[in-house]
Amino acid sequence: MNAPPRFSVIIPAYNEERYLPRLLDSVDAARAAYRGGRDAVGVIVADNASTDRTAEVARARGCRVAPVERRAIASARNGGARAASGSVLAFVDADTVSLHPRTFDAVDEALASGRYVGGATGVTLERWSAGLALTFAAMVPLVWITGMDTGVVFCRRDDFEAVGGYDERRYFAEDVAFLAALRRLGRPRRQKLARLTHVKAVASVRKFDQHGDWHYFWWIPRAFVSMLRDPKGKDSAVERYWYRPER
Fold this sequence. Notes:
Blueprint: E1 7-13, H1 20-33, E2 41-47, H2 54-60, E3 64-67, H3 73-83, E4 88-91, H4 103-112, E5 116-120, E6 123-125, H5 130-146, E7 153-156, H6 157-162, H7 174-186, E8 192-195, E9 201-203, H8 206-211, H9 216-229, H10 236-243
Parallel strand pairs: 1-2, 1-4, 2-3, 5-8, 6-9
Antiparallel strand pairs: 4-7, 5-7
């Protein structure tokens, strides 16, 4: 009987047949580079009611597919986690361009130190422009202040369960709420969130390709107002931006 993997990589996906293969190429490279061995990293694609060949692509690449019918990113993340068997969970978006090849070694080292309850790798972007650079720069102070980053988000399975996973009542900002919950969990243990910026993932900029390189400067205030009005709501702007993409 095979031992369960050390890592379960969970990829929530909706209609991602175009982008998923390049991410899986980089996951395979990181698995091959992992000191714990390739088989110590399992990959789960949480298929969030896709209407394209996402599930077929995932299965053809040897991934486990976890169907999740409720169209909410938090539900997809949790659905993938329920299908996982690893003691460490690592979440990454399906349109991510690539993982750093030393991602799993870096996460292992961070968790083994005992100083961290979980964390994220951070990201760099697949392309740059003035609008993208200013958007990125505007986000950096928030990351410094909160300690919450993006990219590959990771934690121990036990801690994921202790905080209740991702809040499925939220249609957006569920990732921020999850990291905030992990941070609260870690405080009594004197553990904080890790930022593994030496193994940054490369993030897609397809939202900027679709909406314009400056769109965060009008979209973020709109989303903030929506969140204040109803933190767990899904208004028309949220629906268009995250749940009815052009793909």
